[in-house]
Amino acid sequence: IGNRTFTMIKPDAVENGHIGAILEKITAAGFKIVAMKYTQLSKRDAETFYAVHNERPFFGELVEFMTRGPIVAAILEKDNAVEDFRALIGATNPADAAEGTIRKLFASNVAENAVHGSDSDENAKIEGDFHFSGREVF
Ligand code: CMP
Question: Dihedrals φ, ψ of 75, to 5°?
């Protein structure tokens, strides 16, 4: 049993047909999917989830983007999950992301960057609990 991180496949990657390829990269890298759902964030969901960014100039754009279509939300388990998943997805801006990373392969730009990955164990727990009840985690 490893520890956990939380991810979302964002609306841009869903629209562009990348759900399957992204899940393949995630499982091939050794992450076990312990919870997963296809869902759409409401405006209030997105404002709550991204509350830490609410003073940023891009906050409105971020909420608009994250609510414009469905997402895949998942909790992933692996040793060193948070750090290893951030390495797998690459830098926030795909222009700065390493070759072979999920954002390098599938993201459009810094705003529409294909996937989310928690930045700490503490946030992974908060974000997973935001999306999933205990009965939905296996
Ligand atoms: P993520 O790091 O998952 O969470 C915060 C999100 O804000 C980030 O992904 C991007 O989707 C978005 N974001 C970060 N920086 C910018 C920016 N400069 N302009 C627009 N959106 C951004």
Answer: -105, 130
What values do phi and psi take at 77, rounded to 5?
-125, 135
Our answer to whether residue 53 is catalytic in this structure is: no
The residue contributing the CA closest to ligand 1 atom 10 is 111
Distance 135 CA to ligand 1 centre (A): 31
Q: Ligand 1: residues whose CB is within 6 Å?
A: 53, 58, 61-62, 92, 110-111, 113, 116
Total structural domains within the chain: 1
Give me the CATH number covering residue 89. Answer: 3.30.70.141
Segment 42-69, tens digit of pLDDT: 999 999 999 999 999 999 999 999 999 9
User: For the segment 79-90, what is each residue's pLDDT rounded down to a tens digit?
Assistant: 999 999 999 999
Residue-level pLDDT at 8: 98
What average pLDDT does the segment 105-121 reach? 97
Expressed as residue numbers, the domain containing 98 is 3-136
54 CB neighbour count, 10 Å cutoff: 12
The two tokens of residue 133 are: 């009840």
